[in-house]
Design goal:
Elements (H helix, E strand, L loop, with lengths): L22 H21 L1 H22 L9 H33 L2 H6 L6 H28 L8 H28 L3 H7 L21 H8 L3 H13 L6 H29 L1
Helix pairs in contact: 1-5, 2-3, 2-5, 3-5, 3-6, 3-7, 3-9, 5-6, 6-7, 6-9, 6-10, 9-10
Membrane topology: Multi-pass membrane protein
Subcellular location: Cell membrane; Membrane
Keywords: Antibiotic resistance, Cell membrane, Membrane, Transmembrane, Transmembrane helix, Transport
Length: 277
């Protein structure tokens, strides 16, 4: 009787885990996914309307329809200067809502399963949404400011004031984007994601965006003075128009950074849970 012996597999035939992508590959993958998110925005008529055209329509609505009727101690000719900072933040809110829907769509339509089969780092998918949202929001903000200049917006800001204002706006956009990413990871459908972010769109209306908080009823005034949107608006308004900023600057930074410190780790945990289950 012959005995068959089996040789141990050589090291050449043993399976090894795939090497982790290098930093250069991660940057290249991130660039591809950022472009993917931007192309989805252009092709999605609803997202394009919500993020770009609707804020400009609201600006025209508030200036020409409501501006002459609001009894807030602001002359109609000066109302455009007052309202533009609020519309800028409102623009970020509308665009952030589309980010939540995009994240939920990726998580629920099987796209993430395809990405997980590729040699890429999973979190780069979320990074693509965040950077694309930041770029999309800054572009929308530039369009709103351009339209505002055409209809009479006359800021008195210096170059450094503009740089500081853009920094505050960018920090706010980053905060709103990560909040939307978190809601997008919580939601189980695109409709639910849109509903989760719907309340964000109301915060500018309950702030000093469109009328001074002193004109509001006492109960609403207390909320308006102690929510994150009001100090951010007052900081941007002060930088662009030279109005007193007071404590609004540090309050705006504390609100935005504090929310980011909470939301980013929560989003990372939700993403790991959704992609490993």
């Amino acid at each position: 009787m012959t005995t068959t012996t089996y040789a141990e597999p050589t090291r050449r035939h043993q399976r090894h885990p795939a090497p982790r992508p290098s930093l250069a590959w991660n940057i290249a993958d991130a660039w591809v996914l950022i472009g993917r998110s931007l192309r989805h925005t252009v092709r999605n008529g609803d997202a394009l309307f919500m993020g770009v055209f609707l804020p400009m329509m609201l600006l025209l609505l508030f200036v020409y329809v409501f501006g002459g009727a609001l009894e807030a101690g602001i002359a109609q000719s000066d109302y455009v200067d007052y309202v533009v900072p609020g519309v800028i933040l409102l623009t970020a809110g509308f665009s952030a809502a589309t980010t939540a829907v995009s994240v939920t769509t990726d998580m629920t339509t099987g796209v993430m399963d395809r990405f997980r089969s590729l040699p890429i780092t999973n979190w780069i998918v979320v990074l693509g949404h965040v950077v694309a949202s930041l770029a999309r929001n800054l572009f929308s903000t530039a369009l709103v400011v351009g339209v505002a200049l055409l209809i009479g917006f006359r800021p008195s800001a210096s170059f450094l004031d503009w740089v500081a204002a853009v920094g505050v706006i960018s920090l706010f956009i980053l905060m709103m984007t990560w909040v939307s990413v978190m809601f997008g990871l919580i939601a189980k459908s695109a409709d639910a994601a849109s509903g989760f972010t719907f309340f964000i769109l109301f915060l500018p209306y309950m702030s000093s965006a469109f009328v001074p908080v002193e004109t509001m009823p006492a109960a609403l005034r207390g909320f308006s003075e102690h929510q994150p949107i009001t100090p951010i608006i007052e900081t941007v308004r002060g930088l662009l128009m030279g109005t007193p900023i007071g404590d609004s600057a540090w309050q705006a930074v504390v609100w935005t950074v504090g929310i980011l410190v909470i939301v980013i780790p929560v989003s990372a945990r939700l993403f790991r849970r959704r992609t490993t289950s």
